[in-house]
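Internal ticket #5521
Category: modeling
Description: The requester needs a full-assembly model to guide mutagenesis choices. All entity lines are attached below as received. Residue total reported by intake: 836.
Assigned to: D.W.
Attached entities:
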Amino acid sequence: MSLIVHKYGGTSMGSTERIKNVAKRVAKWHAAGRRMVVVPSAMAGETNRLIGLAREIQEQPDARELDMIAATGEQVSVGLLAMALKSLGVDAVSYAGWQVPVRTDAAYTKARIESIDASRVNADLAAGRVVIVTGFQGVDPEGNITTLGRGGSDTSAVAMAAALGADECLIYTDVDGVYTTDPRIVPEACRLEKVTVEEMLEMASLGSKVLQIRAVEFAGKYKVRTRVLSSLTSPDIPLDEEAQSGTLITFEEDQSMEKAAISGIAFNRDEAKITVSRVPDRPGIAYQILGPVADANIDVDMIIQNASEAGMTDFSFTVHRNEYQKALAVLDARVKDAIQAGAITGDLKIAKVSVVGMGMRSHVGIASLMFRTLSEEGINIQMISTSEIKISVIIEDKYMELAVRALHKSFGLDHQDA
Amino acid sequence: MSLIVHKYGGTSMGSTERIKNVAKRVAKWHAAGRRMVVVPSAMAGETNRLIGLAREIQEQPDARELDMIAATGEQVSVGLLAMALKSLGVDAVSYAGWQVPVRTDAAYTKARIESIDASRVNADLAAGRVVIVTGFQGVDPEGNITTLGRGGSDTSAVAMAAALGADECLIYTDVDGVYTTDPRIVPEACRLEKVTVEEMLEMASLGSKVLQIRAVEFAGKYKVRTRVLSSLTSPDIPLDEEAQSGTLITFEEDQSMEKAAISGIAFNRDEAKITVSRVPDRPGIAYQILGPVADANIDVDMIIQNASEAGMTDFSFTVHRNEYQKALAVLDARVKDAIQAGAITGDLKIAKVSVVGMGMRSHVGIASLMFRTLSEEGINIQMISTSEIKISVIIEDKYMELAVRALHKSFGLDHQDA
């Protein structure tokens, strides 16, 4: 009898009426003979309400106490969902993270799962119960409540599926799968039936926010068959249809000849570019530039250093726009004179556009098609960075939508080509 | 260094501003060298909100899941209060019942505390921390969350004080102590500086709702020095003054000669009277009447059977007004013919008035003074019931206030006599 984990987000759990709909959907799977574990998020708005209360008390809330408070949102959700299932005649039981237990480290507000004890849940499943477990939280070695940070319920669900050896983990969300790019920008964008973990990781980190990146990592590491699908369909649609919908995240490259070389176009406009010019090209220079930036807790994304010319080089990197001013200040104060840089310049008006695909590894010409497409649209490329399965470029931000649409078409991802 | 437990009700915790005031008060006690444990209730309205959500899902919410949900209200409170103390520079830590742990039986929604492990709390106290523990809840032997039922936070606080061997348990509430009777009815009512556990039990069960009755029982059983006092005073009043305010619940009768024979007048108008007339006076008849009533889960308060006359007797008892119709229906269906009773009659328009006092045991004439006072006011007595330290009468409900005022005066409880 197969074992399935369902995860429902805050919108799906947003009201008692919606919770009843979630219960109907779970009951359908249970009635079809599946052993069911469900991981719901807090009701939409609840986590923000709780954090708001905490902030009224302390501007920078104490992390341990914040977790104590924030964890209650999911505890209410699991109780309500268990009730909703019982009122449908389905035996169900709810657990908070510490009751399973879901063991984490002690990094409050951003804890990492260390292990999950499956025995209690397995006993309930063997007794025919639906087991409902809080997402987003666990318990540290000292018995303190911890939370995994925003979006952590995706990670909880995949980790639970891994610990139980579940056949599939279904992440119900408000989109119906993973798309070749954002349909709001490219109406011809297609839903992908399958995407590999590696592609999903590149898509997620590049700005497609369908599934939390740590959840994807877990799915890859523990080989959890994970599917992203819509929670907006009627709970009464046939199970077979529902089970095939959405996007399946797989572990192996699709071997079929028809497989497109790339699976999607990702983009974001959240970054800013900083260039340190005419830097002496000597060992340790990258560390001398980025060390102070890291010390200031500023995350760096792309890092590019061009070849040297006459012993001098240019060093560029991107940071989140919110940290642009802070990064410039750090460079001015601690780096510029120390390394005798020629100039430090920056640009907020940039966008990053990437083509992502496992097929890229075995197909030549992806880069040249990408650059030719952008050139034909008259879009200048400011920076280029590549990995095994993606090519990213930095362009002027006003061209972002144009670039995404042109690339989507030239790589054959539009509906008519699919 | 003395150890003090504070308990704050939902009104005191009703907003983040009020929580900051609670923190100021606790910080004052901590600064004065007391080791402090604090037991707060959920923020006012929160428990009702949570139960409301549960009822939207299930009209009769599943008891285990209801506890899972309801317990979150106090969990939020302890986290917020710990933050408020930290922002005042006081080291504090919060615990849910299961983290202490507070062990209870498995009677969801009305669990009873079985034991409290003091070791974790003691370690924090030794480290100079204020320890904040959720009221109202615990954990059963299987690791399920349980709640103690409405008002259970009083019981939690007194039980925690007992487990820790605290010097005193202070119950902060929205009245400033226990009064000789309700000041809304008798403006001359006086606050009692002291009251015995036994008197408090009679007062509480008779309708003075200052302190939960189970908390009083705990205080008596474990000899916890407990004080009821106001949370509406400024948190900045001198500690010595605050520590002497309110009403202290003691374990021994005051031996001083001046001690009044009775300490208060209690009353309630929530009951209805039922009389089964001309019942054969034979063994087992009381059980034949009340057995079916108890089977229907109807609580009975006073029970009176008069002496027999010609082998027949009248049997009367009181029930809550809400259960009056149900009780009559049970008697009609299952009792009347079975015991060949003459008639079954009832009366909703009754009130119970009681005089309560330890001094009653050593003073003759309490009953006669009570009956004379009522007679002088022209109030007819319908039923009489007595215990070691109280005399209760049932009268027509419209005379209740008059009776309370007259008794308060004749027993010397008015301000000018005090």
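Resolution: model delivered.
Comment from assignee: The two ends of chain B are 36 Å apart (CA to CA).
Ticket closed.
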